[in-house]
Design brief:
The radius of gyration is 18 Å and the shape is globular. It contains no helices and 29 strands. It is mainly beta. A hairpin with a 5-residue loop joins strand 13 and strand 14. The strands form seven sheets. The protein has a five-stranded mixed beta sheet with strand order 1-6-5-4-29, with no helix packed on it. Strands 2-9-8-7 form a four-stranded antiparallel beta sheet, with no helix packed on it.
Length: 320
């Protein structure tokens, strides 16, 4: 394992803590573990762990700004973006020695201290526009058709629906306590909301912007007070959702059509976020308190590897 500081460019901005998950590329062809790299942000270690999934080990550690959390890839997969909270920037580590992507697309971030959502032009590295939202914005995502941006408000117990064209808040939807993460299904017909302190995942209808369902969790032997949903990811075929349950030290595998929990898998301590490999075979889970990453086989519903990472793993992005 090597300790290195890659070439990077920072985008000056307000307090930035989470990248929109819609920046992650849609990979058309399935990739095997032999060609995949996982990038894991370590919020206490001020670093990114670069993990070779075939070898099952960290092959490099990149120093970044203070308290890195959100981590994602541009849609073309060429550029990695890392939100460093205390550095108040989005850093762009150079993955392969080339220049950052200049596609001119927007990066959507939430600014917790300023209760705002900011759109940044990746070509000019400048703020394009900004919209006030509820207190303590945490999760952020964009609809598959690109027309709507959704931002959670932890303190306000609500989500804001923002028109990407007019830059206005269309409406707000009340949620259970402390909504932390939001994720659209690939067809855009549902929005799943992880309410951490509510201990549930809620499902909203983007057409009506109303809550239509609630998913509860009960991992065996875990007190309900420890069930704190955070990260959500859908498998590429859209049939399953994988939910990180925080202090419950489990992930849940949920059938999307029925919204029923099919299995629980015990992972490391306090899983925050995760990513699913493009072939849908495995979930890569960042465990914030055990300082490691769990590799979960989604077919057998078992942990197949535990990989030491940095101090406080938080987010995961996967690239060929």
């Amino acid at each position: 394992m090597t300790q290195q500081t890659p070439q990077k460019r920072a985008i000056p901005a307000l307090l930035i803590a989470l990248l929109g998950n819609t920046l992650m590329p849609a990979l058309a062809q399935a990739q095997t573990a032999a060609t995949l790299t996982a990038y894991v942000s370590n919020e206490r270690g001020n670093s990114v762990s670069v993990i070779d999934l075939a070898a099952g080990k960290v092959v490099a550690t990149w120093k970044v700004g203070q308290r890195p959390r959100g981590i994602a890839l541009t849609r073309d997969g060429a550029q990695l973006l890392v939100a460093t909270v205390l550095a108040k920037a989005v850093e762009l580590p150079d993955r392969a020695g080339g220049a950052p992507s200049r596609a001119g697309k927007l990066l959507f971030v939430r600014n917790e201290d300023d209760a705002a959502m900011t759109a940044i032009d990746l070509s000019s590295r400048a703020v394009a526009w900004q919209v006030p939202v509820g207190k303590e914005p945490e999760g952020i995502t964009q609809s598959p058709d690109g027309k709507v941006i959704v931002v959670t408000s932890e303190d306000g117990k609500l989500i804001s629906w923002i028109d990407a064209a007019t830059h206005h808040v269309l409406s707000e939807t009340e949620t259970e306590a402390r909504p932390r993460h939001v994720e659209f299904t690939a067809d855009g017909r549902e929005l799943w909301i992880a309410a951490e302190m509510g201990g549930v995942v809620q499902v909203a209808d983007p057409a009506t912007r109303e809550i239509t369902a609630k998913i509860t969790f009960a991992p065996p032997g875990v007190p309900s007070i420890r069930i704190m949903p955070c990260g959500i990811r859908f498998t590429p075929d859209g049939k399953k959702a994988v939910v990180a349950l925080g202090r419950a030290n489990h992930i849940a595998i949920v059938d999307v059509a029925t919204r029923k929990v099919e299995a629980y898998v015990k992972v490391g301590q306090r899983p925050w976020h995760l990513a699913i490999t493009p072939d849908g075979a495995r979930a890569i889970v960042a465990n914030g308190m055990s300082d490691d990453v769990s590799v979960v086989d989604l077919a057998t519903r078992a942990v197949t590897a535990t990989i030491p990472a940095g101090d406080g793993p938080w987010g995961v992005a996967i690239a060929p």
